[in-house]
Structure of Asparagine--tRNA ligase:
Amino acid sequence: MWVYVKDLKKHIGQEVELKGWVWRSRSSGKIAFINLRDGTGIVQVVVEASSVSTDTFQNAKKLRMESSLIVKGTVKEEARAPGGVEIHAKEVIPLQIPKEDFPINKPDHSIEYLMDHRHLWLRSRRQMHILNIRDAVLKGIRKFYWENGFIQIDTPIFTGAIGESAGNLFEIDYFDYGKVYLAQTGQLYLEAACMALGKVYNLGPTFRAEKSKTRRHLIEFWMNEAEVAFYEHEDNLKLQENLVSYIVKFVLENAAEHLHALKRDISKLEKIEPPFPRITYTEAVKLLQKKGFNIQWGDDFGGDEETEIAKQFEKPVFVTHYPRKAKAFYMQPDPENPDVVLCDDLIAPEGYGEIIGASQRIHDYNLLIERLKEFNLPIDAYDWYLDLRKFGSVPHSGFGLGVERTIAWIAGLEHIREAIPFPRTLYRIHP
Ligand code: ATP
Ligand code: MG
Ligand code: MG
Ligand code: MG
């Protein structure tokens, strides 16, 4: 019976078949040890010359790192083994034995070398743990929306309307239509969908030609965006803190072993629950100035500013009411002070930076036209978006959560590039 390593404990005393790859192996005259990995874990296989055929023992000795193989044997309880079990082999069947050394076989390869071999690096234990945490984050996101009555709307990748700043767009030639762009966000489409379905979300890749190299920016990254009709900014803040707390809890409940393996300080994650602290942009500027930052009211924050703000709190912190001019065209002005908008950035603790950008959206037709002009955007590309303000316009709000930023924070990764299977960065699109 074919079983996976993670399920071996349920099969103690039974004869099983394992399919996988050689993690490490060593042998002497009478005994061979194979550490077999199958994507769900690693188990030690013991091959004794005295209890297998000569063929099987010779096969076991021939194996080298990352050979593929099938093993048949008995599951034995073994307290000293990781996972508490080992396999006593009856048969070892090599499927393919590499002719060269596996390229990743040292503890000290450079990050460039590892990224050049990303297709093989994925087989490492560390990457296996990170990808399991990524999977848990994505499952947690979907489950949250499922439980809260949201409909998933898949927004397009090709778009004619700019959703964020014009500075980091990818242009594509699109048949007779001319220039279109890869989506920086699906927000505008979600706004249309929330007027049809009420509570909607998306989950998928977005693209930004980020020219700066930071440990928080990818060129292709995943976003989860949500948009809700009739939500004002206060409702939006609550939705964000509930979502983020839910994701963290879901990962703690379903992927704790992977967090432990990465030596993540779990106690920090256990503190993440609503409500999250809030400060206004104006208060944040004062705080930064007091700490010696050279920042003026009106500037957007970069990574260093965000890290300093986050230091004051154990939980993610909402920075609210940014200056209108520092943010995108679609944000609703604060009725009490039209120089700032009803928006927030959610900054993760421990220096992981902005994980969410959010706002209430402008729902007044004339005000939106005014803003499009102020931002020098082509009104005709937004005809359909303006229609949403002509037919039953209502206040509505939403946000975009950076999936890899969230993973980097939860898993405690130094750099965002490990949070996605095949990262696209300024200087890398291969493999
Ligand atoms: P930043 O200020 O860090 O550049 P942003 O304000 O430009 O981010 P938004 O337009 O608010 O980003 O996008 C929503 C979320 O998407 C961000 O809060 C962040 O978590 C994530 N994000 C934005 N740009 C990137 C990127 N280049 N790589 C990875 N995640 C990103
Ligand atoms: Mg940016
Ligand atoms: Mg930002
Ligand atoms: Mg933002």
Remarks:
- The first helix runs from residue 54 to 62.
- The mean pLDDT is 97.
